[in-house]
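Shipment paperwork, digital attachment
Item: protein structure file
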Amino acid sequence: EAETPIERTHKVSQRAIASEVALEAGLNAWTLNRLQRGPYGVRSTTKNGRFVLVYGRRGHALSLDASTRRRKTEITLNDSRECVKAATYLHDETFFALAQRKYVYIYDASGAEIHRMNAHLEPEHLEFLPYHYLLASLGHSGVLKYHDVSTGTAVSSHSTKAGSARNLAQNPRTAILAAGHSNGVVSFWSPAQPRAAAKALCHRGALTALTFAADGAAFATAGIDGTLKLWDARKFSPLAELRRSGRATLGLAASHKSGMLAVVSTAGVDVYRDAWAGTTKTYAPYLSHRAPGYAGSQGCVFRPFEDCLVVGKDDGADSLLVPGSAEPAYDTLEGENPYHVTSTAKRGRLVQSLLDKLSPETIDLFGSESLVGKIEPDVKALETDRADLLAEANAGGAHHHPKEKRKTRGRSKLAAKLRKKAKNVISKETEQLRAKVRAQHAEREAAGASDPSGASKTNKTKRKRPPAGGVLDALAVSEGPPRDSSGSKATKKLRGAITSSSSEDAAPLKSQPPSQRRKKTASSRSSPAETTTALDRLFAS
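Attachment content:
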């Protein structure tokens, strides 16, 4: 620990720290070298932090007891085409999963393969959700799949639609999975939602590392642009930004309670204290370790109850002492005693965790406080309340239904379906309308039966044929009912003009003989064309 604020603790080497701490704590500083199937990564530990899972990219994995440095399980894949891209423990050290070239494989503590998960194709990242017993894998095609390891059933499968992801991290508080993509976007996923719960643009380039704080309230991202950013997980707003130019970040890890953040780069390891407060400076880390061999590191992880950090490197792994990073007191509700573990206690803890397993629907972006810890309502009571609400709604009769718009162009299939559905609805208003229509029909039938002459029937305007009186009478009929007994003004004028001309021709006809009179009358009759011309001149005037 620093004695004064001026003291630079990042200048203290690991050898100096190991010589000053207690003998038992100094045993946690060790190095695992000369492994031939690197580069190696460390991404998973058990709940008590005693066992660490180390995996090599070229087909090597080993479960290591970090306290005694004994190899509990070691697997070497003889096929030259096989590789191990990710690894994670399940509920304890007795089972672990490896993401190999084509499928996900489950192994037990003896190193025997007990299951091959064919549905998880070309996996690149693995995460295990301990409270839900879900194993999640993110493949090369960008498909995120959830599998329940307690029942062996597939829960859900979601396509990120962003191609192969660079990182996958779990929020320890909400169990939400965050995937870092090549376009600088971080998407958040839940097995209960078919689409991403949220997306945040964190960097201008591809992401290289991603991790969450122990309380799940913040997360850290590192990009290929050389920046390290801290974000608020609730508001998705930046808390701090560190520029690490010239040092590409390969891995991030957050301690469980002390608020420390470990950053693995090609140059070495840097540990920042109180990083989530937003006051961290790039040039003043809490601890620094410079050594060759970290250019291909695949990740790092803090041990929960020990002041040490396990980091993968090119030819093995290193355990570095980080004073103040461990949790001083363990929670018995969260896990077994890390210092004294018996087989009986492990079996009891396993049974209890299975009984307390949460359903995938409880995984939410902002926590499951609204679901977990609440009393589940009675299903029958909910159905009864729903039936009462429906009955009350049908009996009310004062509900406002929005009027459907009548479209004059085109056809609307949805509108037709809604109209058809509305016709089948039987409500109080429709019954009243039908009764009113029946009463009107009955009144009309009764009125028709009492009046045999048909005078009470509805008068319908019929189109009458023009009378034989000529063009004037037809014009008067087409114009409708006359305004007075003599017709309209145009009809009066036309009738007067034709009457005067006919009287002039009729006067000499009386004095002539009947034979000449008949000839004169036939010749004096005007043709239809002449009558039409006369009418046109009259209307024009």
